[in-house]
Amino acid sequence: MSDPIETAIFEKLSAIDPKGDNGKSIEPAEVAKALQPEQWQRMMPKVRGMALGLMRQGRLTITKKGKPVDPNAFKGVIRLRYPTADETAAALAARPPVVTDDDDFA
């Protein structure tokens, strides 16, 4: 089952960039307002956190002034968009390696 924040992010993106190839972006506040119109400010940290997780998975790009941000060091006003193929590859390459041979439990 998908997280409602994740679902809202991708619904908003799909509405403005259906194929994900135009580079159009949304504000995180749009997602927060769609989820909780009356208290959307309270949703902002959760939306930003979900966006960060999706960026680390290579499924989303967080930008500032049109440029992708470093997921480990950003603050301020951001926007969200679909990643390019290169951005997805870079995000996946930056992930820690998966250890399949764990001798501790042998």
UniProtKB/TrEMBL annotation:
SUPFAM superfamilies: Winged helix' DNA-binding domain
One protein family per Pfam: DUF3253
Name this protein carries in UniProt: DUF3253 domain-containing protein
Gene3D superfamilies: Winged helix-like DNA-binding domain superfamily/Winged helix DNA-binding domain (1.10.10.10)
